[in-house]
């Protein structure tokens, strides 16, 4: 049996490499990225800025009545989770990532790391994961490579713990050096194409105990998963996607008109226009599946926020932020 998929105890695994010492060494950073498929930095984000974001999560959880007001460790009080908003829709609709990345200290860190302004892709997950209710399930939630589900936009994943995440709380595990391809997802198993058990050798998995101020940056093809939360607290993290601003950035905007042949968008930073679809267009619907061209008008409408990648006036990717 694959030890990493057993229920219960998290198997022993090696710690993530810490890259703090190469933060200002472009060549060493690139070499670590190419070798490992991630960077992990310890205690580099302004903990006051991270604390302000944690406060937003804690306020939301206490409003929902699942933690005591002002409980800094977010201990679950046992209330029914039947109506719990697992994707924290209220934080998503308020776009609470924006003031966070606009904090001067946070902006400065990512500008230094990328040697460029950061360009944030508004594909954000606000995770407030309650203690696992079913402890007979595997400890790994769902091993995946983000790139498999996000063809065409070369971002890095930025995973930010908002409170301490120890082995009981779970957190993120990733497979070091396994971003070099090919995809591990099984094309013979639609519609989710799961990565088969054992495709990632047990010795490749890495983790650490995460603390506020830490950040993991991952290659979009690095296999990873959340680990089920066996503590009594909520697991608090945010993940968002980022690129260097001078890179081949997608247009983030709102649809102004749409047919099965083209889409017009009002983009940010003056990047508006009409762009045609062709046989290479990958249109991803809200359920994550590829949408045939003639069905595109029934999946989106004017006003919707979208992420759009364009090459030579043709759309390569059209998708909602989530
Ligand atoms: O935090 C998790 O549970 C999973 C994170 C993840 O899949 C991501 O950051 O892309
Ligand atoms: Fe992911």
Automatic annotation (TrEMBL):
Keywords noted in UniProt: Dioxygenase, Oxidoreductase
Q: Which Pfam families match?
A: PhyH
Q: Which cofactor does it need?
A: Fe(2+)
Highest taxon of source = Bacteria
Q: Which GO terms describe its molecular function?
A: 2-oxoglutarate-dependent dioxygenase activity; iron ion binding
Keyword Oxidoreductase tagged? yes
Q: List the InterPro entries hit by this protein, alphabetically.
A: Phytyl_CoA_dOase-like
The protein's matches in SUPFAM superfamilies, at most eight in alphabetical order, are given as:
Clavaminate synthase-like
Q: Which PANTHER family match?
A: ECTOINE DIOXYGENASE (PTHR20883:SF48), PHYTANOYL-COA DIOXYGENASE DOMAIN CONTAINING 1 (PTHR20883)
Q: What is this protein called?
A: Phytanoyl-CoA dioxygenase
Q: Which organism is it from?
A: Paraburkholderia rhynchosiae
Highest lineage ranks of the organism?
A: Bacteria, Pseudomonadati, Pseudomonadota, Betaproteobacteria, Burkholderiales
């Amino acid at each position: 049996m694959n030890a990493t998929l057993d229920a219960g105890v998290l198997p022993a695994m090696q710690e993530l490499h810490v890259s703090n010492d190469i933060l200002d060494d472009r060549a060493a950073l690139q070499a670590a990225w190419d070798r490992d498929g991630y960077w992990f930095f310890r205690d580099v984000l302004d903990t006051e800025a991270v604390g302000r974001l944690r406060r937003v999560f804690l306020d939301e959880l206490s409003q929902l009545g699942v933690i005591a007001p002002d409980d800094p460790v977010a201990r679950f009080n046992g209330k029914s989770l039947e109506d719990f908003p697992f994707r924290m829709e209220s934080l998503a609709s308020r776009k609470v990532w924006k003031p966070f990345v606009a904090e001067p200290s946070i902006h400065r860190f990512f500008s230094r790391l990328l040697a460029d302004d950061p360009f944030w892709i508004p594909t954000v997950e606000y995770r407030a994961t309650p203690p696992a209710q079913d402890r007979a399930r595997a400890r790994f939630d769902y091993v995946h490579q983000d790139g498999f589900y996000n063809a065409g936009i070369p971002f890095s994943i930025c995973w930010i713990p908002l409170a301490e995440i120890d082995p009981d709380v779970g957190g993120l595990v990733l497979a070091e050096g396994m971003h070099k391809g090919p995809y591990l997802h099984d094309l013979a198993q639609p519609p989710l194409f799961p990565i088969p058990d054992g495709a990632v050798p047990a010795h490749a998995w890495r983790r650490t105990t995460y603390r506020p101020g830490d950040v993991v940056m991952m290659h979009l093809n690095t296999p990873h998963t959340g680990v089920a939360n066996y503590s009594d607290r909520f697991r608090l993290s945010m993940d968002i996607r980022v690129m260097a601003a001078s890179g081949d950035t997608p247009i983030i905007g709102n649809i102004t008109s749409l047919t099965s042949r083209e889409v017009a968008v009002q983009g940010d930073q003056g990047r508006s226009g009409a762009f045609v679809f062709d046989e290479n267009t990958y249109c991803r619907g809200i359920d994550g599946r590829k949408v045939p061209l003639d069905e595109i008008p029934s999946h989106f409408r004017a006003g919707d926020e979208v992420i759009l990648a364009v090459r030579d006036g043709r759309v390569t990717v059209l998708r909602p932020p989530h």
